[in-house]
Amino acid sequence: MQEALLKLREILAFELMKIGETSVTVSTLATAVLVMIVAFWASALIRRAMIRRVKESSVPERGSVAVTARLLHYTIVLVGIGVALSTLGIQLGALFAAGAVFAVAIGFAMQTITQNFVSGVILLFERSIKPGDIVEVEGQIVRIRELGIRATIARGLNEQDLIIPNSLLVQNTVTNYTLRDALCRIDANVGVVYGSDMKRVREVLEAVAESVEWRSREHDPAVFMREFGASSVNFMVSVFTENPWNLRQQRSALNEAIWWGLEDAEITIAFPQLDVHFDPRVSEALAGIGATPREKK
Asked: Does the model's pTM come out above 0.90?
């Protein structure tokens, strides 16, 4: 038994190589491998726990939990690699210094990827945009489906999947219709002729706005006389909704309701017109262009 232990100690103490002043033996190599195995095992264990949390959590939290699990995985693996290299006698400070030039070159080459990665971390902790939110990005209304490390997956109104770089969501102005609540205002503009009864116009528009079925009951609709245009008196009808995903359909329905409301009230919707007035001498000259010689006399 003692001979076996002595033999095992000799095997473990056998020097494989030297890194600097550190002797790499079988035992140190085995310890480094064991550290890596423990790091990957711990990462897998935590990820499984996070996946169970994803299944139990609500939809808006799933993307954040998934991204957090991925970040924890990278962190644990990197720590394990660092400990394993230190065990082998590799000084991380010297390694980083030696690879500084390459790191700078790689940093320039991967600048966009790094930018998107950092933006993804910001979105994760800031939680200004979450899975399930309805946002407007570069003129498009989309529903956020999944927050990733590099990019965000969203669904457009035309049922297409969009891959949006995270940096675009962080660096640009993004309208989030559901950040604190889903309340959203829809504006419809209409112009009536100057000869209309403006009190009657307001009454009709207010009645139309009140009659819209899908409007939010928490906020009353509003009618504004916006301006005196060149050919019309312009009004704006504002109605609140709690379903911003259907803005297009609801705006269309509101416009149709305004059209038929004014039509039933016999109020004319104005269109651009241009009145031309001629100087009297110009009018006489134009009148004489088509006259016969006898008519001119």
From this structure: no
Gap between the Cα atoms of 73 and 96, Å rounded? 22
Phi, psi for residue 270 in degrees, rounded to 5: -75, 155
User: The tokens of 82 are what?
Assistant: 């660092």
176: which strand partners? 135
Cα dist from 96 to 21, 87, 93, 100, 122, whole Å = 18, 16, 5, 6, 26
- Whether 267 contacts 202, CB under 8 Å: no
Q: How far apart are CA 152 and CA 123, in angstroms?
A: 10
Tens-digit pLDDT string for the chain (297 aa): 666 666 656 665 656 566 556 666 667 777 777 877 888 788 777 777 766 665 555 544 555 566 666 667 777 777 777 777 676 666 656 555 545 555 555 556 567 777 888 888 888 878 888 888 999 998 899 999 988 878 999 999 888 999 999 999 998 999 999 988 889 999 999 999 999 999 999 999 999 999 999 999 889 999 999 999 988 999 999 999 999 999 999 999 999 999 999 999 999 999 887 777 778 777 777 776 755 555 555
Q: Is 62 exposed, middle or buried (0-12, 13-18, 19+ CB in 10 A)?
A: buried
Alpha-carbon span 135 to 168, nearest angstrom: 13
Instruction: State the virtual CA torsion across 146, 152, 155, 161 in degrees, nearest 10.
Output: -110
DSSP 269: B
The neighbouring-strand residues paired with 143 are: 134, 155
Give the Cα separation of 25 and 88 in Å (integer).
9
Which stretches within 24-128 are classed as H helix? 26-56, 59-87, 92-98, 100-109, 111-126
Collapse the DSSP code of 96 into the 3-class scheme (helix H, G, I; strand E, B; otherwise coil) and give the result.
helix
* Number of other residues whose CB lies within 10 A of the CB of residue 46: 16
